[in-house]
Amino acid sequence: MRLARTRGKKPGIQVLIDKGSVRCYPLDKVMDRVIQGDALKVLDKLPAESVDMVFIDPPYFLQLPKKRLRRWNVNSDVDPVDDEWDRFGSFDDYDRFITDLLTKVQRIMKPSATIWVIGTYHSIFRVGKAMQDMGFWILNDVHWVKTNPMPNWLGVRFTNATETLIWALKDRKAKGYKFDKRLAKAVGLGKVGANVWTMPLCTGRERLKGADGGRLHSTQKPSELLKRVIAITTKEGDIVLDPVAGVGTSGHVARGLGRHFIMVEINPKYIDGMRQRFLNVGQGERR
Questions:
Q1: Within 10 A of 23 (CB to CB), how many other CB atoms are there?
Q2: Fewer CB within 10 Å: N-end or C-end of the chain?
Q3: Burial of 40 (0-12, 13-18, 19+ CB in 10 A)
Q4: Alpha helices in 39-90 (DSSP H)
């Protein structure tokens, strides 16, 4: 799927640093920007019922041990998702974080807006329960099948080759949400546009690198995934909100598809990655 050229858009991205003294942000001050700050604080300052779609790629809470992981059969280290942002004291702590995040974005969603949340088996079922308890109305789950999943070194269970996306309305009575049936049939499994998407993990030139040459973000999503999400369930000119934006794939793709975006990210290292990434957006690239 090729990104459209963004007419009238200059390359680069504007960064707004959230300050405690600011009580609210007018929509025109945050649109097409990344806000550097704590999502749970920033979201309270955004206008109610102002965005057309929300995409959330929250922490997985993988519950990994705080020690080196070794591949015993090839004698090398595993490069796991062991970032501080993926650590919680308990399932209760994780559930509170997810519920707080969902409560705040629910207020910002327009009545016809939809929300996407992605996760692995470690957490997506907890997220789904929280959404249903809060009144979100689930339209679909979409299964992303990875053509190049992480190797199954130990061979004691199935290779984890999927992630699940939940697509939902803010409540059951919502009407007028966007869905491009033609495009959904073009990318889904088979001719019926089934809820199965097959594509590789983010690798190669698309993967942003840090100063040490390693991956900048542990769980950067492929642009193709966000292209499908945004193109199928929004229209040109809509506003996409990503409250935990990471390295900005959602905004990068949104701009390329002629949509507006609001991103929130607390890590300045990731925002620096966005700055470089957005210098190339809007040139019809396939990244």
A1: 7
A2: N
A3: middle
A4: 39-42
Q: What are phi and psi of 281, to 5 degrees?
A: -75, 150
Count of positions (residues) in the chain: 287
Q: Which of 149, 152, 180 is nearest to 163 (CA)?
A: 149
Q: How does strand 70-71 pair with strand 76-77?
A: antiparallel
First to last CA, the chain: 10
pTM of the model: 0.86
Type of residue at 61: F
13: closest CA among 263, 238, 266, 283? 263
Residue 103 to residue 86: CA distance in whole angstroms: 20
Q: How many Cα atoms occupy the beta-carbon half-sphere of 174 within 13 Å? A: 22
Write out the CATH class of domain 14-59+82-150+157-277.
alpha beta
Quick one: how far is CA 146 from the chain centroid? 16
Distance of CA 1 to the CA centre of its chain: 18
